[in-house]
Amino acid sequence: MRVAVVVFPGTNCELDVAHALRSLGGEAELVWHRETDLAGFDGVVLPGGFAHGDYLRTGAIARFSPVMGEVMRMAEEGRPVLGICNGFQILCESGLLPGALIANRDLAFICRFVELEVVDTGTVLTGAAEVGQRIKIPLNSYEGNWVDPTQSGRIALRYVDDPNGSQGSAAAVANDLGNVVGIMPHPERGTDELLGSVDGRILLEGFLRSLVPA
Amino acid sequence: MTDEEYASVVGLLGRTPRPAELAMYSVMWSEHCSYKSSRTHLGRFPTEAPWVVVGPGENAGVVDLGDGWLAALRIESHNHPSFVEPYQGAATGVGGILRDVFTMGARPVALWDQIRFGPLDDPKNRYLFNGVVAGIAGYGNAVGVPTVGGELEFDDSYTGNPLVNVMCLGLLRRDQLVLGTAGDPDNVAVLLGNATGRDGIGGASVLASASFDETSSDKRPSVQVGDPFEEKKLIEACLELYQRGLVVGVQDLGAAGLSCATSEPAGRAGVGMDVDLDAVHVRETGMTAPELLMSESQERMMAFVSPNRVDEVLAVAAKWEIDGVVVGTVRPGGTLTVRHGGEVVAEVPAASLADDAPRYDRPLARPEWLDRLWEAPARRLEESPDRILLRLLDDPALGSTAWVYEQYDHMLFLNTIIGPGGDASLLRIRGTDKALAVSTDGNGRLCRLDPRRGAARLLFEAALNVAVTGARPLAVVDNLNFGNPEKPTVMWQFRESVEGISEACEALGIPVVGGNVSFYNESEGEDIHPTPVIGLLGLADPVPQRPPHLSRAADGMEIWEIGPMPTGNLAGTSAQRVIHGDLTGRPTAADPAMASRIVGLAAELAHQIPVLHDVSDGGLALAVAEVCIASNVGAAITDVATDLLFSEDPHRLLAVFESGSVTLPDDVSRLVGRMGGETLTLAGSEPIPLTTLRRVYDQAIPRRMSN
Amino acid sequence: MRVTVEITRRPEIADPQGTTIERALHDLGHDEVRSVRVDRVFHLEVAGDDPETVKSRVEEMCRQVLANPVLEDFTVEVGR
Amino acid sequence: MRVTVEITRRPEIADPQGTTIERALHDLGHDEVRSVRVDRVFHLEVAGDDPETVKSRVEEMCRQVLANPVLEDFTVEVGR
Ligand SMILES: Nc1ncnc2c1ncn2[C@@H]1O[C@H](COP(=O)(O)OP(=O)(O)O)[C@@H](O)[C@H]1O
Ligand SMILES: [Mg+2]
């Protein structure tokens, strides 16, 4: 079961995500954004960071990277596609997820633990969790404020105490199929007791479990 | 440049310098680049220890951590640029300190910011504070290096001249160490990163080397804009170059830009260099040779490469989507020859730009106003302890700093065991059972009252901060922020501070491995408080299973004070500042022998005790309050005289643990109270509800910034 | 040719920046300010001699990347 | 009154964002793009009946908050 962790110029959470997935028994490989063939990967993660410096709009330039063609293909094939933070923004820009992410309500970067509530377990990220379950993991973003004029988004996780103005307090959003998910907080930062929480494991284990051989 | 300095350039060259040559000497011989006023004194620092791999003089200090790991550390100031433009000034300060560290072959793993402003009731100070924090966040977060701690102080003396210092820590494998050397003849100089523009022409020399009022807007160089995205690509490209052993040496382009990045590596290697300015990729047209040589455009690095590896180096640059151009060739002999438009515009002894820089032994004089301060001992505290504590908790320098550090990514890389909000930051080194602890400390008011005692106490406090995480002190970097060195009283403060730091380092047996000096911090002729800032690195080996943390106190646990009995001397304390608004008296001196003993004791206790917290700003009372707030448990402190509750006398710790679970040496420990309940009661005064404590503490900064 | 592109946020989309600036202006006593909207402007230098072609090319860039259709509309002006 | 404020970054000040967007447009095949600069526009609704007074008030706002005098210049147009 192999997971591609995509690295755009400016991405910075790739090592953390790969480390967390491996610590949970997953097989994760870093893939440079110019890669045009993800054959042999069963799922893909777009990690957090500042792809292309977040210039123009967060995710706006990254979505044109050569690798995104393959990400689209995997999404259409129903394979697990996860975007974390900046990855979530890229998935919205590329149209794989509804809506867009704009600046936090208070126009300040927010880095702290937040509490989430599981709303929908029918996604590749929340499959191992239970509806109503509380999950505490770090948020780390300036543009974490999700807006969806079409009201078509499927909310998988919501903030218990909305920190950034996100529509419906959404912290994680999925497509109709549930195989493409974007999450603003960082599950990989919640996988080690020594660092304050292991709640993120529930999410990443769910993601790994949802992988089916290519 | 003074007339004498000009004369010695003429002497050196045996002729009148060309414009480009004059430009190079003027920036390289500026205070900022040449340390001409401070060098004589910096020699005092102890710099040697078996674990020192690279001491002061290189871009960053490097120490050995064992297991093949090295740590690179450095601290830098960006005070004047941050006053001109707080966001970009702070942002480019972060960019600069990162380059100093990854120039050594290290991956930057953490940042700390030490920032000082005038009081927040002045909108201009709020604007500067806000802009600086946003700039550090904007650059640090985007470049992908966590800011895991720092330090914050407010005082009138910083109103016209805020202090913005940034420290960076990097990790590298022993075989990846790279130095700023040009290596052997025929090596090729490759300029990597940003295009060169007219940014900050003479910025370092003009801004950081003259009294600020002199540098009126017209004299100020154009503001430099940071590009964290370019820097991120530059970091990854350089790390790949090191991994693949493609470079002989690397030098970052900071102050003095190309002048420094060519002459210093050549000087260090005792070689010369041919440099072709026409090859430099530029952002603006029509740049003159002096402009190209002095430009401080950000996010640029110079790599020295053996001729047969050049193509591979350029390929790595291309992969990471940054520009790389060959701009020079190393030559035998010591001559640095610069060409522009095909013509030779400079031909100078490379080493002379650094080595022959002037050195001043400036006159010193102890300020006579010190007598007046010392003769007026600090007033006693009359108010009741609960009221005093609430006023301290409401102080922006003593209350929660979450408003600052929640704007910083302080968790990236999954190493932050203890982040901002505690004493020292604690970062694990993955794949080992070691962890690195860092505390940064400064205290301008203490150092104004007694620069030698004050500076020594900073160091001991930092040592205690790292010890409570289970780490032992390893090395120090210092950032010396002072006023106008042409004033004998300022130079005296400087010498005294260096003395204090040196004495404390000797007592703890740790070296200074790097630092930075910032002079001319003054406004309207008023110098800032002498403000040495130190960053102390400690190594926890092994890291405690469960390191002590403010949040681990529980109902029923005993509260002990460890260390010498404090005196009632409130000189230079937070209580004196907040309650009386005074700055008088003479601070209590540190006791080096006691300091080492308590530091050693703390490092051991850290493996057994749930809460171990250094007693510093705000004294015992504030230390207990911080534990109550973090652990959400009340406490009662037995009868301690008010002045002792708020004393900041050195070498003291707060320890909280289950009764009988630990035995402490009784000559330096006493039971002072017990955790429990929903309130904090200080020496029988009015109990303070936890909710009140937390509200006041949490709002100290937000309530001021929101108006 | 000089081309000016203005990207405007759809009225129905929240504008934290505009709101914050409006508040800041009121705090400073500029109560006469009724509303604030912040837009992005791109000044492009584009090669080409037929304004119409240039305009349609730039409009294509807007649809493709410069604007986010979910949030924003755009206007393109050639030669300003 | 409708007031339009355009904030332009001084030409000598680096514009990393503009440079990055330019690069992206080239990657997308828009080679005709020679340069890109990114600026901000504020659309204000301001109460008042004398355009001159409104203009000078808004210019004051620019110096205070809307523009960063160290990096940017501004132009104010009333009723556009
Ligand atoms: N400017 C800042 N940036 C980030 N963290 C800060 C800053 N100022 C203070 N902190 C954090 O707040 C905590 C308290 O700071 P300080 O009072 O300097 O601690 P100490 O007194 O133990 O040295 C520390 O953990 C420090 O890292
Ligand atoms: Mg301290």
Topology readout:
The complex is a heterotetramer, with one copy of chain A (214 residues), one copy of chain B (707 residues) and two copies of chain C (80 residues).
Chain A: E1 2-7, H1 14-23, E2 27-32, E3 43-46, H2 68-76, E4 81-84, H3 86-93, E5 100-102, E6 110-118, E7 134-141, E8 145-147, E9 154-159, E10 170-174, E11 180-183, H4 200-209
Chain B: H1 3-13, H2 19-28, H3 31-34, H4 39-42, E1 52-54, E2 61-66, E3 69-77, H5 79-84, H6 86-102, E4 107-117, H7 123-143, E5 147-154, E6 163-173, E7 188-193, H8 203-208, H9 228-243, E8 249-252, H10 257-269, E9 272-276, H11 289-294, E10 300-305, H12 310-319, E11 324-331, E12 335-340, E13 343-349, H13 350-355, H14 369-375, H15 385-393, H16 402-405, E14 416-418, E15 425-428, E16 435-442, H17 444-449, H18 451-467, E17 472-481, H19 488-508, E18 512-518, E19 522-523, E20 526-527, E21 531-540, E22 558-562, H20 574-580, H21 592-605, E23 611-614, H22 619-631, E24 635-637, H23 642-645, E25 653-657, E26 669-675, E27 679-682, E28 688-689, H24 690-699, H25 702-705
Parallel strand pairs in B: 4-5, 9-12, 17-18, 24-27
Antiparallel strand pairs in B: 1-2, 2-3, 3-6, 4-6, 7-10, 7-11, 8-10, 9-11, 12-13, 14-15, 15-16, 16-21, 17-21, 19-20, 22-25, 22-26, 23-25, 24-26, 27-28
Helix pairs in contact in B: 6-7, 6-9, 7-9, 9-12, 18-19, 18-21, 19-21
Chain C: E1 2-9, H1 16-27, E2 33-46, H2 51-66, E3 72-78
Antiparallel strand pairs in C: 1-2, 1-3
Adenosine-5'-diphosphate binds at residues 113, 115, 149-152, 401, 404-405, 420-423, 439, 441, 465, 614, 616-617 of chain B.
Quick synopsis:
The complex is a heterotetramer, with 1 copy of chain A (214 residues), 1 copy of chain B (707 residues) and 2 copies of chain C (80 residues). By secondary structure, chain B is an alpha+beta fold.
